[in-house]
Hints:
CATH superfamily of the largest domain: Response regulator
CATH topology of the largest domain: Rossmann fold
Helix content: 25-40%
CATH class of the largest domain: Alpha Beta
Number of domains: 2
Radius of gyration: 19 Å
Structural class: alpha/beta
Number of strands: 12
Shape: elongated
Largest sheet: 5 strands, parallel
Strand order of the largest sheet: 2-1-3-4-5
Amino acid sequence: xxxxxxxxxxxxxxxxxxxxxDLLKQYLRRAGxxxxxAPGGGQARRLIETLDFDLAVFxxxxxxxxxxxxxxxxxxxKAPAGQTPVLMLTARGEAEARIEGLRIGADDYLGKPFxxxxxxxRIEAILRRAQARPVVNNGPLSLGRCRFDSDRGExxxxxxxxxxxxxxxxxxxxxxxxxxxxxxxxxxxxxxVDPSGRAVDVQVTRLRRKIETDPKTPRYxxxxxxxxxxxxxx
Length: 234
């Protein structure tokens, strides 16, 4: 199958099943990727800390650290490692498992058994989206008269600090990690006790009152219908 993306993108495959791991390595290498594999979370963490990857494929059901825990850890890392796209593989086909994976920061989810061609197409699609993402500004973001410092978790207006709750800080930090890119409500909801996302909607409403000149017509904290929200700094 002809590749539409540049060759030698570096993938990390993490699966405790030797047979599946070897098959994925062979198939993806034939498709033009550079592939590094690990049998579990411990080795995967060491690889992520020392090498750069364009995308990671995590199996969910692994002994020791599972794919959910590994994804949570990855998303806590600083850029660029923390922004590495993640595709999750699992034999668990329940909607709850899929939602959990997306909620904690996975980019896509594929249940086992799967067709290798579908895996390849999903990887290509994720990489195209990742390539289109704007470069993240690690400094404070300008939001009109407001500025948000993600490292400090501080919002200010004309130099005056604006009080934020811990949930509001977490929400802004996640949106600030990928500015101008929509983030799914279910992913944002992972920081709340309400998996439906309604608590996120309440937090967004409160933040708009603090950031926007006209909260009813938001310029910086925008709604993306059918998806979630995005932060659009100056």
